[in-house]
Amino acid sequence: MLAGAGSNPEWYTGTTDKHAAYPTSHPVSPGDLVATIYDALGIDPHLTVPDRGGRPIAIAHGGEPIADVLA
User: Fold this and answer.
1) Neighbours of 61 (CB within 10 A)
2) Is 20 domain-assigned?
3) The dihedral sign for the CA sequence 35, 40, 41, 46
4) To the nearest whole percent, how much of the chain has pLDDT over 70?
5) What angle is formed at CA 66 by the lines to CA 63 and CA 71, rounded to 5 degrees?
6) Domain range spanning residue 33?
7) The overall pTM is greater than 0.90
8) Total count of domains within the chain
9) Is 18 within the bounds of a domain?
10) Per residue in 8-45, is it b (16+ CB within 10 Å) or e — as a string?
11) Residue 46: pLDDT above 70?
């Protein structure tokens, strides 16, 4: 899913069941992918921005950067 921007081309993490349908270890959420992209761009993935009501919204939806992806 990720290429360029300092990503490791030999990266993989976790394992799946025998049908490759479900992760059995190290599941990655969409928020984790977003946080990884923000981190690669030099943007703090824990940054929040206010919505119209002034409530803080996390830009990475609670995800954490996947350290193994970045070379």
Assistant:
1) 13
2) no
3) positive
4) 79
5) 150
6) 1-12+25-71
7) no
8) 1
9) no
10) eeeeeeeeeeeeeeeeeeeebeebbbbbbbbbbeeeeb
11) yes
